[in-house]
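Write out the 3D structure for:
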Amino acid sequence: MKKISVIVPVYNSIDCLERCVRSICAQTYSALEIILVDDGSTDGTYRLCEQLAGQDDRIVTYHKQNGGASSARNLGIDRASGEYLGFVDSDDYIEPYVYEKMMQVLSEKDCDVVQISRDEVDEDGVRLPDVCVPPKEVRFCETETFVKELLLHQGDCSFCTKLVKKELFAGHRFPEGVLNEDFSLLVDMLQEIDGIVILPEQGYHVVCRKESTTRKKTKDSFSRVFLDIVDNADRMQELVDKTYPTLHTYAIRFNLYQRLDYLLHVPISQMTGENEFYCNVKKYLRSHVTDTVGNSYLTGKQKVYLLLLTVAPKMIRSVHAWKMMLSS
């Protein structure tokens, strides 16, 4: 059996790590190496990692200074001995069949990347609406089609739902110091493969916790994820225009959507002339009014928001903030 190295970046996860690790240990595919990378936890998580490693000799642990999930994953990649790499976030858990099914498909389809479908649950295990709708049967998605689905926010860019031949990571690592890092790496890696096999089973469970990197703590706190998604949109536009010119309209839609997301989250206190990033977002919207009106892949509501934000961004942002406050 070919070995799979499953990499779990860990940071202050003492309340959920055991469920995550036990779901990996319970896999029906037994040729696993489970790499727990403690990223400088301060709540005793590292001791829990060591306890879990003492209960299953497939588990190895590493401890490092805090540097973020990407740096923890990269350390795991460097130390992995498996021919294939999988990733699981410490908040999440997986069904016992996940890696057996994925390995079976990898051998049958002779491909380099396979993706299991996912669902989202809250902290009590209550099912939430699907972010990514699974296919009805096993599906091979060619690279250009997968890129198109990412541009339409229909594809799954997470590496947690994927099993990847380790050779593909030669020359590739997760970008450190940014968020939305899976998207950036996947787009680079997609250029080296023909496509991805997608399985219909929703075997990966994303746990949506109340405290997340994108949730505001005060009216002026702001996650850099909303900056990174705009930067990634610009990279996608450049890639599409160079490699997939037929997807140009989809890339414009993606750029507008990501900037809409940014403007609906940026604190009003940061919407100033001194904020160069904010000014560039406004400039983009004003230079793409025709694209906003004519793009058939934007909803009517999205178009209205974009046009209003183009004319009066601070006022519309204030109204949206009050609307969200009243609905919460």
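Confidence is low (pLDDT under 50) at residues 212-216.
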